[in-house]
Structure formats: C-alpha cells, structure tokens
Amino acid sequence: MLSELHIENIAVIERSDIRFESGLNVLTGETGAGKSIVIDAIGAVLGDRVSRELVRRGAQKAQVTAVFEDVDVNAWLRENEIDCDDELILQRRIGSDGKSSCRVCGTPVTAVQLRELGSLLVDVHGQNDGRQLMDERRHREYLDLFGGLEASLAKYQKEYLRYRQICREIEKLSLDEVEKERLSESLQYQIQELERAGLKAGEKDGLVARRDLLRNSEKLTEALDQALELLYGGEENAVAFAQNASYYTSRAAGLAQELEGAAKSIDDAVFSLSDAVETLRDFRERLDFSPEEYDQLESRISLLNKLERKYGRSEAELPAYLDECREKLDSIQYAEERITKLQRELTTQTERCRGAAAALSEKRREAARMLEKRIVSELRELNMPSVRFAVAFSPLGGEPGFDANGADQIAFVMSANAGEALGRISKIASGGELSRIMLAMKNVFAEKDPVGTMIFDEIDTGVSGIAAQRVGEKLYAVSRGKQVLCVTHLPQIAAMADSHYRIAKEERDGRTYTEVMRLDRDGRAGELARLHGGDNVTATTLASAEEQMASAERFKGSLDKG
Fold first, then answer.
1. SS3 420
2. CA–CA separation, 151 vs 314, rounded Å?
3. C-alpha angle 270/237/287, rounded to 5°?
4. CA 65: distance to chain centroid?
5. The whole model's pTM is what?
6. Parallel, antiparallel, or unpaired for β 61-68 and 2-10?
C-alpha cells in the first residue's frame, strides 16, 4: 500500500507530508483547494507525463516521493536489477525547465520504467474512466479481463497469425501479368550479367593488390637488383663477408669461451641473410609481367566497380545478390503453382481460425453471463434496483468474419429504469448512473487485479442522496481488500472514511499555499458539517455530522461481522 507521500513545490503545495493508512482514505476540501494536485503528484511519481507548469512559481524544482509497504513487485525489481529493502521508495524530480528524473530505491530509472512499476502498484480511476467505459472498442477487453481469457485469446491469435502470414504470402505472389513479365525480364538480365562476370567473393582485393604492385614494378625491380647485388653479387658481398666473420669468430671462441655467444649471433646472421636473399630473388622473379596482364587487371577491376555501383552492393555481397535474384525469378515462374498450394492452406487455416474463434466466443459468453450477474448485483447495492445489464454479442461483418481478437463484436448495454429497453451505456446512463456503473465494474474487475491501491478521483460526479450513501458503502467494502484513496465532495462518502484528510488553501504574503491535514474525530465532524452546510457550521449541522459518522460506524461493524 501507499504509506507516505512527500510533495514539494508542486503547484500551490509548497511542502506536504501525508501518511496514508490501509482501508478507506478520503480527501475533501473546497473546490480549487488542491485536491486534484495531490492526485497529480501521485500520478507524477507513478510515471505520468509531467510539464514545467507543475513546478511551483519561483521554485527551481519540484519533487514527489512515495513510499510503499507490503507490495510484491520483486519480479520487476529483479528484471530491472534494483535492490530494495522492506520499503519501496519512488521519487520524481521535475525541473523548472520541464526536465525530470526518476529513481526507485535510489537507482535512476526512465519514466517508462517508472510507469511500468506504477501500474503494478496503483490503479487510478478518474472521470476519464467513464469515457473509456462508454467506448465500446474497450468492452471486449474488459470482458476478457474479467473472464481470465488471456490464454484462450493467445491460442486463437496463434492461429490468426498463421492465417495472416498465408494471406501476405499470397499477396506477395499475386502480381498482374504485365508486372510479372517486366520483373521477370529485369531479373533475367541481372542474372545473366552477374553470371557472365564470374563473381568470386574477395577477388577484388587481390586484383587491386596485384595491379598496384605491377604499377610500381620498375622502381621495385631497381631496388631489388641493388639489394641482391650488395647481398650476393660478386665475390665481395654481404653474405660472403658474414660467412668469413663467422669462421674467424668461431675460431676465436674456441680459444676464449666468452665469445661463443658472439659466434652464434654471427652464424645466425649468415642464415638470416641467406634467407633474405632467397626471398628477394623469388619476389624479383614474380615482377616479370606483360602489359597485357596489367590491362586485364584494370579491366576486371573496372567491371567489378561498375557492378558495385549499379547494384548498390559491395563486391563481396554481389554473389549473394545473384542468389537472391535467382530465388525471386523462381518464385515468379512458379508463382501460380505456389499460389494454388497457398490457397489450399488458406482454406484449411480459415476453418482453423473459425473453430478457434467459436471456442473463444463460447468462453466469452460464459464469462458474460457471470459478469452480468455480478454487475447487476453491484449496481443494486448502489441504489439502482431496477437496473438491467447485459453483454451484447454480434458477429463481425464481412469476410472472413474474424479479426485479431476473434469473431465477436461486444458491447455493454443496460437499462437503468424498469420498462426501458436495453441500450448503449452512453445513451442510457446519466452522469450519476455512469459513476456507479464505473464503480461497480472497477470493483468486479479489481478482484482479479493484484494491484493493492486504488484511487478514485471524484467518482461521486452526479451522485447524491441515498445513491451517494451506497457509493460510500461500496467504497468501504472495496477498501476491506485493497487500500482506497478517494477524492470526494459528498459527506455520505466522507463519513465512511477510515482516515480523513482535509485540503485547505490560504493566502500569505500575496502567495497561495495549500495544506493537507489529517483530521481527528472532531475535525471530521466539522468537515462533514461544512460539506453539508458550507461556511454556516451550526450545532445542528455538527449534530447531523456526528449522527452520520455513527451510522457509518454501525454499517462498518455490521459488514465486518458479516
């Protein structure tokens, strides 16, 4: 759960330290006092997008720190190589230039990583969730989540993926006749040109080296001839002198033992000089060439350069490109045969997809029947006694009658009042009804969600009277299994709080400041009285607040006993 929240220089909040508890945590305050800023701060530390407008005017940076206890995110921590103790600490700093930095237990992370972790810790429900609920494109996703159909959907999607692969192969092979002829002629020409070239990978480097050698053959020949003359030409040459020196030094070493090393070195030098002479002589002999050889080298190199430029590939890559052209030509020439075979595979795979889609649809219908009962039960507890809720199925139109998610079009429909026909939620539900529908669905879906903290930002929109009391009771029921944070304007909901926080705004020295205060019982009574009667807090409104809290406590006691 979220145990501590530190906010610094976020909008009108200069500094605030809030300690949340398990159960139902309620935040109240005047409109504009800063309740949404607390939610924005939590969103920032969970990885939401941030901007420099979030930083308090005049401050260089803003910071939000959240401490979580008793959370199971070890798999994520291991995957991201982060070490944490008992407490999980998330931190977000936002500069006045809009740049931000994120840390988890002191380790720097990206905003994307922080958002991934945040999704495992907190589920935030705001007014936008109502719009998502009305978006029928999301209804199939909600149903699959409730029914735990991820594995069934994945099994179907494996068949659908193969279906799409076959379709793409057929499309690739299905060229018109003119295009086939043009492409076939082009490939044949390229294949013939490359085959005539007799390509050999790595050939060009050897040709260039030989050409450069022959280009400098005259200078090389002159230098080699001089070197050979000095080393081995005539009677007086380096090798002969070295041999004589070796002879006399060996004789001296026979008389003075300490000269044996020098004798050996000179003897080794004789062998080295002889080897060098052989190397130079062999190299000199290879320099003999004809002008025809040089011309042939230049022509071959020129041809390879031309092919490289023409086909946009290196000389080493041209043989592979030739093989590629042959394969393309084969695929065109045998396209009709291949298409016929693929069409047979497509027919078989289409039936496999339809079978898998039918199995998935049946599981969805089973899940839908359970979901309908659960949602209706939840809504009746939220003071909607005549409500009817259904999951409407209709087949996908057109061919092949299925897509990546199966063969179903799914929409949630409802009737809020007795005698009314089922219709789209967006057309049937009022604002208050939509809030209760969302709460009912979130409560049902939360049972399969491991996230331990739920935040409801003004879920009471359009709700009042008995309906508001039922919403408060439902939020308390949810909080028995998860930590709940709720921003509300309604005393019926605030009365159900386990922990109540008042957010108040004041001006000091021409600046606006927002404070977050945890209320004791007297403070709660005063805040409930304010929610009832505004600034006109009287003995009557205070007595009404005390009565409302006592009623809430009796409800909690009865629920806990049950």
1. coil
2. 48
3. 90
4. 24
5. 0.62
6. antiparallel
CA atoms within 13 A on the CB side of 38: 34
Angstrom distance (rounded) from CA 448 to CA 435: 21
Neighbouring-strand partners of residue 104: 90, 107
Per DSSP, which regions of 11-133 are E strands? 13-19, 24-29, 61-68, 88-95, 100-104, 107-109, 122-125
CA 365 to chain centre: 32
CA atoms within 13 A on the CB side of 549: 19
Q: For residue 69, give both structure tokens.
A: 């206890």
Residue 319 φ/ψ, nearest 5 degrees = -60, -40
Pick from 220, 222, 214: which is nearest to 295 by CA?
214
SS3 call for 504? strand
Instruction: Tell me the per-residue pLDDT of 319-357, one tens digit each, with 9 for 90 and over.
Output: 888 898 988 888 777 777 778 888 999 999 999 999 999
- The dihedral built from the CA positions of residue 510, 516, 518 and 519, taken in this order, carries a sign that is positive
Q: Which DSSP category does 60 fall into? A: S
Structure tokens of 5?
């929240």
Rounded to 5°, the CA angle 257-263-265 comes to: 130
CA distance 280 to 227: 8
Question: Please, which residues bridge with residue 6 across strands?
Answer: 17, 65
Contacts of 345 (CB under 8 A, 6+ apart): 166
Tell me how far apart the alpha carbons of residues 305 and 133 are, in angstroms, rounded to a whole number: 64
What angle is formed at CA 491 by the lines to CA 486 and CA 497, rounded to 5 degrees? Answer: 45
What would the 3-class secondary structure string for 275-316 be?
Answer: HHHHHHHHHHHHCCCCHHHHHHHHHHHHHHHHHHHHHCCCCC
> Which ranges of 382-464 does DSSP label H, i.e. alpha helix?
425-428, 431-446
Beta carbons of 396 and 360 less than 8 angstroms apart: no
> H-helix or E-strand containing 513?
strand 511-518
> Count of H helices and E strands in the chain?
20, 15
Stretch 463-483: mean pLDDT, rounded? 86
Mean pLDDT, range 208-227, rounded to an integer: 78
CB atoms within 10 A of CB 294: 15
| Helix 335-381 vs helix 318-333: crossing angle, to nearest 10 | 90
pLDDT band at 127 (very low <50, low <70, confident <90, very high): low
Q: Alpha-carbon distance 278 to 209, whole Å? A: 22
Q: Of 142, 67, 152, which Cα lies nearest the Cα of 444? A: 142
β-bridge pairing 100-104 and 107-109: antiparallel
Could you count the other beta carbons within 10 Å of the beta carbon of residue 493? 29
Confidence of residue 434 (pLDDT cuts 50, 70, 90): confident
Cβ-Cβ contacts under 8 Å for 137 (sequence gap 6 or more): none
Whether the CB-CB separation of 418 and 404 falls below 8 Å is answered with no
User: Which of residues 234 and 244 earns the better pLDDT score?
Assistant: 244
How far is 296 from 316, CA to CA, in rounded Å? 20
Contact 504, 514 (CB under 8 A): yes
Pairwise CA distance, residues 23 & 3, whole Å: 11
Identify whether the C-beta of residue 516 lies closer than 8 Å to the C-beta of residue 16.
Answer: yes
What is the rounded CA–CA span in Å between residue 260 and residue 328? 74
